Amino acid sequence: MKYKAVVFDLFGTLVDNYDYIGYASALRETSSILKLHHEDFMRLWKETAIKRTTGGFKTLEENLVYICRELNVPVKQFDINLARMVRLDYVALSLAPRKYFIETLSQLKTDGYKVGLISNCSMEVPMLWPNTPFAPFFDVPLFSSNTGIVKPDARIFQMAAEQLGVNPEDCLFVDDNSVNLTAAAALGMGAVLYAAPEEVEPGVPVKKQEIPWEGPSIKSIEETLDMLVG
Question: What's 5-16+96-227's CATH class?
């Protein structure tokens, strides 16, 4: 057995990247519910992204209240609750498994591999995670909003290996981002690019890798199983 564990990325690997049209629609609805000027809301939503993904806001409500107060708009708990539900509904819909992913995870567990997750995400994802079809298959799910560490920081890869009870070189890391793969490989992990056929929406540019990736790549998640032996 070449590896003892497999560690997956979430958005872009387990599930599709956020759908831009749905994402924009949900945020527009949020600003409307909170009676905020949409451009002002979006400015602060983007400015608070790092704090949102590193646990600076413990809840979504805290983030929304902060934005309202920064814009001098009265905070109404009913509106905050309604806006929270819009966001949670959108994120929940985004956590739908890619084709054949559950079958692949099931096979990994049957074959005796430990399975981990590393995700740069806001606090809604770990909150919703236990109710996703993925949860039963993962031994160690790590979310940046809980750990305070985002990829490609080497500490998050080291943490995943330690909590899985293996050395970094015993892990295969699968991600759709070459920057994260390069960081994992520098720590000694096996690294493979998940380069699924592009599912591009009209008007949305194709994702480009920030740095060249010359390592192995797969086009379907089932190919992960082939990377584990040899």
Answer: alpha beta
225: amino acid identity, one letter: L
Q: The whole model's pTM is what? A: 0.91
Q: What is the average pLDDT score of the chain? A: 91
Query: Where does the pLDDT of residue 209 fall: very low under 50, low under 70, confident under 90, or very high at 90 and above?
Result: low
Backbone angles phi, psi at 218, to 5 degrees: -130, 155
Residue 43, classed as helix, strand or coil, is: helix
73 contacts 31 by C-beta, under 8 angstroms? no
Nearest in space to 141 (alpha carbons), one of 110, 166, 168, 114: 114
Task: Write the DSSP symbol of residue 130.
Answer: G
Asked if residues 132 and 41 have their Cβ atoms less than 8 Å apart, the reply is: no
Q: Which helix (H) or strand (E) holds 89?
A: helix 77-94
Residue found under tokens 């970094």: 168
- CA gap 16, 134 in Å, rounded: 14
Q: What is the DSSP letter of 207?
A: P
The ranges assigned to domains in the chain are: 5-16+96-227, 20-94
